[in-house]
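Example (one chain per record):
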Amino acid sequence: MMNPRTLLEDKVDNYRWRLGQLELVPIVIGGMGVDISTTELALAACRLGGVGHISDAMVQHVSDRKYDTHFTKAKSEKHRATRDQIDKTTVKFDLGHLHQAQLNHVRHTMDRKRGPGAVFINVMEKLTMGAPGDTLRARLVGAMDGGIDGITLSAGLHISSLKLIEDHPRFRDVKIGPIVSSVRALKIFLKSATRLNRMPDYVVVEGPLAGGHLGFGEDWRNYDLHTIVTEVLAFLREENLAIPVLPAGGIFTGTDAAAFLRMGAAGVQVATRFTITEECGLPARVKQDYARAREEDLVVSGVSPTGYPIRLLSYSPALGSNIKPQCEAFGYLLDREGHCSYLDAYDATPVDAKGHKLPVQGKVCLCYHFSKFNCYTCGHYAYRLKDTTHRLADGRYQILPAAHVFRDYQFSTSHRVALPAPLEAPTAVAVNS
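Predicted structure:
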């Protein structure tokens, strides 16, 4: 057993994750959407020997913005008759457009791939998109057709997801892993995997301190990642299942990560610290909003129409908005009956004396606000971001190269966070914990 000093000096670089023919640095950058985990961020991780994710959240919008397509406009024009109606039953995606958008994003990324690592895509089941099975299959097939190395199945139990793609030629070639928050959720997924004789290649175990949507209820404070990972590892040993485990949520330092690797985890998934990197897709102003966060600014709220609690910064512009539902252009959260809880909240919100809609309480239009980077989802330790960089003379925070953050996870010890070389050495103010 290691003594306390030795434990603190342990580092991620002492470990490797063997995934098929790959020997990876056991650091995975999570798939933050909408295009927050960009191609550039994923490729940076890949070049350094780890795994980077892109996200397929609102992929038609991403394709239009990055690859000069017009899928969102075409969908909006096709369904313009329902713009002033609450009933969105007829609002559907063109599956061919959806597949092509996914193919564009994945192929563009994989064509630029270099280095010894891998590139995965995060695919969310809760993007129901008016036809849950059909649209999910189009996205999964598009990712595999584009040559993605791995698919991380998130935001849902994915009971039927494997069945949707069992006829694809890459079904047993592409790496597939679910995100779960409990042994119970893992067992449910494994039942469907066993029926198809297609066990997952890895499993991400996400705790209650993760960013964005949480796989917990209002009692999320009663759970902790260490306990959940311990239970998952024990279950897999009991079942004689050699499935690599990747803890996620609240892993802020390399020392945090090394502790899970000593437990028997194959790697760790991290994301929050990469929100203030150069390669991250957040606009420059939003990166500064993240960097200035204080602990009291973090909230876990029920404003998401998905039904999941969501962690975000309290000064997110999305909160208290009164934006008209954008289902014709977007509609990523519509169920098969054309329903979304934001539609109900918007419809129930009164107008003022001038006929203007008052702020909508209780729900936000995630589609619109994610497209505008107005919903500041984040991990629990976002308030520590300022401790990882310098505050410049003009009050802004220095933005970091992704390679700096990756290597800090890989080589740091004793919970130290390596600050970057300051851009303005004479006047920069180092902010440390």
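Caption: Residues 426-433 have pLDDT under 50 and may be disordered.
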